[in-house]
Write the structure tokens for this entry.
Amino acid sequence: MKKTLLYLMVFTGFCKTIAQTTVNVFSQIVFYDGYAANVSNPVPANTIRLANFRYAKKLTDSELNSFQNKIQMNVTIGALCDNYDRIGGVHIALVPKGQSSYTLSDANVKRIEIGRYITPLHE
């Protein structure tokens, strides 16, 4: 009986409910021809267009502090009459503190791929 109680106490000591926070990083981003020159169409506030097919957004300190030891990501894609499947990915870019932007060739920025997807064929 004592062993069973000890195991239950140890187990319940590790059960903890962590509040879930949702961070909507992008909404309504439009991707353009990856082979063409960058378009000049406006982007949402606090969004950087690195290329027609790559966007970045600096997360606020509050958003960064809301991360726990687990991240769940939802990516929703809507086709805009593209006849081809496209490969996409989600990356975390570790930009040095105080640097407000970066380029794809910036050697000081480490990128970690956290998700990869392929878009469905739009017919």
The mean pLDDT is 77. Helices lie at 2-14, 61-65. The longest helix spans residues 2-14.
